[in-house]
Amino acid sequence: MPAPYMVERFNALADRGNLDFEAWFNERLASDRSWIVDERSWRFRYRYMPSFRVGRWHLRFPLPLLGRRPPDVLVSLYAEPSFLVGWAIARARNRLTMFRMLATFDTWVKRRWWKETIKRFIFRRVDGVETPGSQAREYAKKYNAPDDRIFYARHTVDVEHFVAGRAAALPEREQFRAQLGLKGVTFIYVGRLWWGKGVNYLLDGFAEVQRRLKDSEVSLLLLGDGADEEKLREQCRLNGIRNVIFAGFAPKHQYQRGGRNT
Question: What pLDDT is recorded for position 257?
Fold first, then answer.
């Protein structure tokens, strides 16, 4: 999907002007995400992959790979049938292929022997694996990816944006805290409200802080949305966890450098 942080990266890449690339998306938006998708702000070429249904399956097909001029290099994920179909077509047409890999954990997914076998097969044959760090590198090597085909592309943060935002917000700090109902020392989580991120453990830890600091007020500010938001709210209700503020998703375009624009 065109997540805001991916759109920013693609825009930055397009602005450099030294790479001819096109971004392909399977979905425009997910039901549990509330960011705004505005293709008018995109400075790169893109396509949404055609889809069709087979029974209960909603499948996407990388149709551009069958055209007269398929891309020289296909960079994709690998965990869905459409990605594997794309990889197989690209290889059949003698195109280079690369997988973008993040480590996944046994608590996130059920390891099935046939999936593990497929991963060992494809990672031994892919031309490159892009990882953000050493943990993902070791994960790729576990599935037989050759060491000399693994490359780093570290995650980036727009530091200047957050520095400017902090400076602009300081004069209104107490007003913001009052509006949100923040009390005492405030811990902040920014990200998807999904069990795989471990937010339920964060709530358990925050509850323990409250128990130990009976005479002090502390708050937990959750910035983001996701499929498990209601479950997390219910966890707070059932366990008596106080001062947890669900602030929702805040798109970056609502803020300007040097000032808030809401």
Answer: 41
DSSP 8-state assignment for residue 50: P
What does the block give as tokens for 160?
Answer: 């200047």
Domains and CATH numbers, the chain: 4-152 (3.40.50), 170-260 (3.40.50.2000)
Using CA atoms in the order 142, 144, 145, 146, what is the torsion angle rounded to 10 degrees?
120
Q: Name the CA radius of gyration of the chain, rounded.
A: 22
Q: What is the pLDDT of residue 52?
A: 82
Question: Which pair of structure tokens corresponds to residue 246?
Answer: 């669900």
CA-CA distance, 123 to 145, in Å (whole number)? 5
Of all helices (H) and strands (E), which one includes residue 4?
helix 4-16
**In whole angstroms, what is the distance from residue 124 CA to residue 144 CA?**
5
Query: Could you report the per-residue pLDDT of 119-131, keeping only the tens digit for each?
Result: 999 999 999 999 9
Dihedrals φ, ψ of 94, to 5°?
60, 40
pTM of the complete model: 0.80
Tell me 128's DSSP state: E
Q: Which of 114, 116, 144, 24 is CA-nearest to residue 77? A: 24
Render pLDDT for 43-82 as a digit per residue (tens, 0 to 9). 999 999 998 877 777 788 899 999 989 999 999 999 888 8
